[in-house]
Amino acid sequence: MPCAGFGAIKIILVSNRPARMKIFGIGFLMLLLSLALVRAQNLAGDMALSLVLIDGEKWEMVASGYQFTDAACADAEGNFYFTDVAKGTNIFKVGPDGKVVSFIGNAPKVSGLRFGPDGRLYACQGGLKRLIAFELPSGKQTVVAENVEPNDLVVTRKGSIYFTETTKKQVTLIDKNGAKRAVDMGITAPNGIALSPDQGTLVVSDSRGTNLWTFRIDQDGSLSAKEPYMTVRAPLEKPDIASSDGMTTDSAGRYYVATAVGLQMFDSTGRLGGVILKPQNKFLSNVAFAGPNHQYLYVTCADKIYRRKTKAHGVVFYK
């Protein structure tokens, strides 16, 4: 068979029939174009994890002994913060060296944390129906909004606070003047929330669906151009519910969302780049970049905190 194949190619090459040469040339060109297209698609999508993950680097356990960790957050120095929503009353801090200390006490039921441009640490206390802020380093609490049910939040460099109210199917804005208003209604269960690096786009996860919803942030803080821009993979046993939770963004505009099947990564065009396996077979609730150069992915996974070094770098949004 190999000889017959090579013989056929030889006949085509030495043939004096222009039509056959033309057909062969067109076919060869189409093959090259197809290979180039496949390569381009891989670089943009399927191979995207290779641009983030480091060979040989695995999940490293940072802390354990909690019940339900959440509220992943980082500051400009790379310190990582988290809470134990189920039974804890402290906000914990992990230094770039990986050591865990209690940072703020008397902070029960905190499910979301973000630093603001005013230097305060904002916190969601949905169980207490309020959003609060901590003065640093004193830890003094101030109530920012009451009669709200915040789940997770982002704070822009302009001082605008966007937070999800899952049970209300609502995204709420508190502007820099303290005025509160709903800016979106209708997502089945809005949960995690993130910003694009230029802070022009807001992304919201739906824990009862399979989409990440994107919005354009208008000059007055309103949201427009709502679209189910990214499709999240769901477990085979629950194909319509991905259990999408907390989110983060890197400096290249990639989005990372904690889900039932793992940490899913999307590029800036909305293409799924891949799924990073969970460090343990338990609920993955949140994610943030922290550590030296904001190069470590930290995740809150049920009773433990894990991290792994990457090629990517996180974004500090409040600076």
Helix fraction by DSSP (H/I, runs of at least 4):
10-25%
**Given the C-alpha coordinates, what overall shape results?**
globular
Q: What is the beta-strand fraction?
A: 35-45%
Quaternary arrangement of the chains shown? single chain
Total of DSSP H or I helical runs spanning 4+ residues: 2
Biggest pleated sheet: 4 strands, antiparallel
With strands numbered from the N-terminus, the spatial order across the biggest sheet is 1-24-23-22
CATH architecture descriptor name of the largest domain: 6 Propeller
Detailed description of the structure:
The chain has 319 residues and is mainly beta. It has 2 domains: 45 residues; 262 residues, Neuraminidase (6 Propeller), CATH 2.120.10.30. Helices cover 13% and strands 40% of the residues. The strands form 6 sheets. A 4-stranded antiparallel beta sheet has the order 1-24-23-22, with no helix packed on it. The chain has a 4-stranded antiparallel beta sheet with strand order 2-3-4-5, with no helix packed on it. The termini are far apart.
What's the arrangement of secondary structure elements?
Layout: H1 2-14, H2 18-46, E1 60-63, E2 69-74, E3 80-84, E4 91-94, E5 100-104, E6 112-115, E7 121-125, E8 130-134, E9 141-146, E10 153-155, E11 161-165, E12 170-174, E13 180-185, E14 190-195, E15 201-206, E16 211-217, E17 223-231, E18 247-249, E19 255-259, E20 262-266, E21 272-276, E22 284-290, E23 296-301, E24 304-309
Antiparallel strand pairs: 1-24, 2-3, 3-4, 4-5, 6-7, 7-8, 8-9, 10-11, 11-12, 12-13, 14-15, 15-16, 16-17, 18-19, 19-20, 20-21, 22-23, 23-24
